[in-house]
Amino acid sequence: MKTILETINLNKAFYLGEAVYAVNNVNLQIMAGEIAMIVGPSGSGKSTLLSLLGGLDRPISGDIKINGKSIVTLSEDQLAVMRRKSIGYVFQFFNLIPHLSALENVELPMKITGASRKEARERAEYLLNEVGLSPRAHHRPDQLSGGEQQRVAIARSLINKPAVVLADEPTGNLDSKTRDIVISLFQKFREIENQTFVIITHDTGLTQYAQRVVRLRDGKVESVVVAS
Amino acid sequence: MNKSSINNLLAILQLVQKNIKRWWGRLSVIVILVMLTTTLSIFYHSMLISEQTKATIEMQRLELPYDLLVKLPKGTPPLLLNQLPKPLDSTLMRKTVRSWEQNQWKEITYEVPSVPLSFTYAESAAGGVVETKQGSWEVLGIQADSLFYQDLKIELEGAWLSSPGDIILPQELAQVNQFSLGENIKLRATTETGNRILREYRVVGVFANKYDLEQPLILIQDAMTLFSLKVPNRQLLQNNELLTHATGLEQNMSRVYPGASFLYEWIGQNRMFQLTNAVQSPSSWVLLLIYLFMSFGVLTLSLITFLERRKELAILKSIGARNSMIVILLVMEYAIAAFVGLASSYIALRILIPQFSWYQNLPTGTLTKLSIQNMLVTVFALTLSLLYPILLAKLATVNQLIYKRKIPLITERWDHIAKPTYEHLLIEKTKNVSVLQLENEDGKLFGSFLRKPGEHAKKGEVLFIQEKLSGFVYREWISPCDGVIEYDPYSGILTIVPDDPEAERYHYPERILEEFERRKAGTIKKEVVQNEDHS
């Protein structure tokens, strides 16, 4: 299997009066078409690591390769283009644009790529239908529940058919029924589009769906378990 | 422009429309600010221009028999003609040259600087202020055969000045005070020493026409006696091109006659220009204050809005929006607000200003000219207020925007010393290590180690970070090779002892290395000499 995501000696420290390492010398490999889950206690650096993988933050040293290409030396503009094509990101707190409807939020990343309004609308409607939100498509985020907003964010991350979807606690705000829908959606897209999912979770029950489970502690990789 | 770009632009427009709906309150304030500023400044400015134009038109020229009257300061004698400067600055004059070319006459007109001409004629005179029963008068004592008054003699009722004690009155002065020919008038003058002199004069003539200056004329000898003058204190001058070279007259003459005052045909207009300029000068401050008020308002609003919209911009970046898209988005929102403000203000002014009487004096095109000028100032203020948000949105990472972390405007990364000293290079060469210079003050470091002294670091790894100027400047010191780090707290020198002594490291420019070798050779030589001296 091909390596789609790779980190080499990755470090990230925050300057809070003194330097605090959130990610410490992390070496990781994720294969194409995998569902990889990153688990670990709070403050272990999971979200920071995911931000670095998505180019939302910059490491202080080390390298990140997506499809064999390093992203640490890219400018903010180049990173934006890379995200547009290769990465879908689901934030822990949804981060939807508050004055756009669910449908508009989902179609926006596709419109930015230059796709026609019709194409974007069709794809957004399809994804909203997949996450069970067709009836709520024209509601604004403040008219949706936390779980619904999370599903809109998931649909948005999938719109451009990215090679890698990075999701920070995507099921944290969902009830068990919706959680199952979202997980099966990830599995479905993994099978149809051969997409890779890197998911942060606290829910140990989810790891049964993963092909790779990475355990972090104090910013370091404690263990990597690959399902046979 | 391909289909994809058009779709992209349409997406931005749609977002702009939504954003205007979302931020309509803020944008309305910008619209009102622009509208108020534009209306106030253009209204005020056009009123000033109108008054200035009116004053200039209404100010008549004096009708004087001479071109220039110099009132000399106490004790300054009149200079000879050749001692006087060419009175004025040169101006550009149109010159046409005809030439015979290719069987036809050709005319070329071009502009050349004119040559100011010297004064052509001068007369000494004397004068001052006298007291009469009828009030204070300024009298002028002239020569009986003054060339300047030849034309006025024709319009005279009575006789010209011929003997001491004669006085000629201007028409208006004679009429108001009911003086007739042959009547005696007592004039009292105060001399420079403070003595009062009283003299009686006989009216020999009255000017038939209105005479601008209302100055009674007496003979120069009488004036010298009346005012106890040793030298004449007035000079009358003629210059055929005084009108052409209007500018700089008083400045040029003041160089030879410091402290003198001057009188010439268009002194009224000159004074009016000076006066209106003096009024315009504080007015420009008022206008500047109006513009500053707008700029400050827009700037503050823009920054507050940016702080609130950081997350929105971060989301756009996270879903793949390039910086250009964010710039277009912000610029379009502000441009629409500015356009609405400017347009509504322009319409209001077009309706409002013609209602005032001073509108009649406003030169054609003034409103358009002021509107364009105002538009440029508005565009400048808006650009300025957008510059910082745009710059931050460009430099910041998505997480910096979302989590409202400090966004450094300047980021520096050092794996070598920018300007190594002799001591730095000496350490590198003699110990075969790499050195970095940390900024420390009295042994105290303003920053933080990411790899502590004694630890091993990999090439490219950040060893030390520092934030300066409240986070505007962020610096990283990077290991140039794999090795163990050491730190000297006194000098602030961070040393990296390479694992592989042959490892490639930063190569300083030849110029620096040559200077080092030269100094090293000099030092060795000095040491040898010292050792020889000791031995």
Task: Furnish the topology, listing elements before pairings.
The complex is a heterodimer of chains A (228) and B (535).
Chain A: E1 3-16, E2 18-31, E3 35-39, H1 46-53, E4 61-66, E5 69-70, H2 76-86, E6 87-90, H3 102-112, H4 117-130, H5 146-158, E7 164-168, H6 176-193, E8 196-200, E9 212-217, E10 220-226
Parallel strand pairs in A: 3-8, 3-9, 6-7, 7-8
Antiparallel strand pairs in A: 1-2, 1-4, 4-5, 9-10
Helix pairs in contact in A: 3-4, 3-5, 4-5
Chain B: H1 3-22, H2 24-58, E1 68-71, E2 92-101, E3 104-113, E4 121-132, E5 135-142, H3 150-154, E6 156-158, E7 166-169, H4 171-177, E8 184-190, E9 196-207, E10 217-219, H5 220-226, E11 234-238, H6 249-256, E12 261-264, H7 267-318, H8 323-352, H9 366-395, H10 398-402, E13 410-414, H11 422-431, E14 434-437, E15 440-441, E16 444-445, E17 448-449, E18 456-457, E19 462-468, E20 473-478, E21 483-488, E22 493-498, H12 510-534
Parallel strand pairs in B: 5-10, 7-9, 13-20
Antiparallel strand pairs in B: 1-11, 1-12, 2-3, 4-5, 4-11, 6-9, 7-10, 8-9, 14-22, 15-16, 17-19, 18-21, 19-20, 21-22
How would you sum up this structure, described in words?
The complex is a heterodimer of chains A (228) and B (535). In chain A, the strands form two sheets. Chain A has a six-stranded mixed β-sheet with strand order 6-7-8-3-9-10, sandwiched between helices. With 228 residues, chain A is α/β, with parallel strands linked by helices. The model of chain A has no long low-confidence stretch (mean pLDDT 91). The longest helix of chain A is centred in the last third of the chain and has 18 residues, at 176-193. Chain A starts with a strand and ends with a strand. Chain A is 33% helix and 30% strand. Chain A has one domain (35-57, 74-226): P-loop containing nucleotide triphosphate hydrolases (Rossmann fold, 3-Layer(aba) Sandwich), CATH 3.40.50. In chain A, helix 3 runs parallel beside helix 5. Chain B is α+β, with helices and mostly antiparallel strands and 535 residues long. Chain B has three domains: 3-54 and 273-402, no CATH class; 116-248, no CATH class; 410-534, no CATH class. Chain B has twelve helices and 22 strands. In chain B, the strands form five sheets. In chain B, strands 1, 4, 5, 6, 7, 8, 9, 10, 11 and 12 form a ten-stranded mixed β-sheet that branches. In chain B, helix 1 (3-22) packs across helix 8, helix 2 runs antiparallel to helix 9 and helix 8 (323-352) runs antiparallel to helix 9 (366-395). Chain B is elongated, with a radius of gyration of 41 Å. Chain B starts with a helix and ends with a helix. The chains are: A alpha/beta (228), B alpha+beta (535). The interface between A and B is large, with 43 and 46 residues.
